[in-house]
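Appendix B, Record 12. Input sequence as logged:
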Amino acid sequence: QVQLVESGGGLVQAGGSLRLSCADSGRTFNRLTMGWFRQSPGKEREFVAAISWIGGRTYYADSVKGRFTISRDNAKNTLYLQMNSLKPEDTAVYYCAARSDNRISIYTKDYGSWGQGTQVTVSS
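Logged structural output:
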């Protein structure tokens, strides 16, 4: 069973930066791909970025491309999302997720394990 715990959210001003972390205590076969999703009030959960655990290939939503960087530390079993040049539109609860397939997916239905979420608020 995969256990994911996000941290690093908070309140920042527009243009600022945050780094989110997701600690994974599960087994490797259940985190072959990991991703970040976000959800704002009244909206569906949307894809942000994903990474294959082995190989490290990445994919980003157009809305964050060039500003966010997804990465992982294999030794620490930790996923990261470095968020730079933050905008008020980035305000949301951010969730990390794991998928037991090394193929990157942008769909929530393809991820079987989820963290509890961490709030990111960007003020103008």
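The CA atoms of residues 35 and 50 lie 4 Å apart.
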